[in-house]
Specification:
CATH topology: Transcription Regulator spoIIAA
Structural class: alpha/beta
Distance between the termini: 55 Å
Largest sheet: 3 strands, parallel
Shape: globular
Oligomer: single chain
Order of helices and strands: EHEHEH
Number of helices: 3
Strand order of the largest sheet: 1-2-3
Helix content: 25-40%
CATH superfamily: STAS domain
Length: about 120
């Protein structure tokens, strides 16, 4: 059995302890061995987001369970790496999607590119 937690913005510091308590209560009542945190909606994660994930992991580990992150945005992975916490909450591979590529200089963010003028050869 698996517990799925949807992590959505905003993550407020005063909500972290109650959420961890709720997860612990759910885990005590179920036989779930794995908690999957779906992080796909976190576009601008911050330190509160990392704090939440770390505390969820600790709450689960106290009960002999494990937390994994599914579909993390690049910004969250970068923040975890910057803080030296990349291994704190492992990824859940079954729900991951292809990582978004970085936009190139002069390229629109939504993969909209200008077409070249046929009169000028490509550089």
């Amino acid at each position: 059995m698996t517990v799925l937690v949807l992590v959505a913005p905003p993550v407020l510091p005063d909500q972290i302890s109650p959420l961890c308590g709720l997860l612990a209560a759910v885990l005590r009542e179920t036989e779930a061995g794995l908690v999957i945190c779906d992080a796909a909606r976190l576009e601008d994660p911050d330190v509160a987001t990392v704090d939440l994930l770390a505390r969820l992991q600790l709450a689960a580990q106290r009960l002999g369970r494990e937390v994994r992150i599914a579909r993390p945005p690049d910004a969250l992975l970068d923040l975890l790496a910057l803080l030296g916490l990349s291994d704190m909450v492992p990824l859940y591979a079954d729900l991951t999607v292809e990582r978004r590529r970085q936009t190139e200089q002069g390229e629109e963010r939504r993969r909209v590119e200008e077409e070249g003028d046929p009169r000028y050869p490509a550089v």
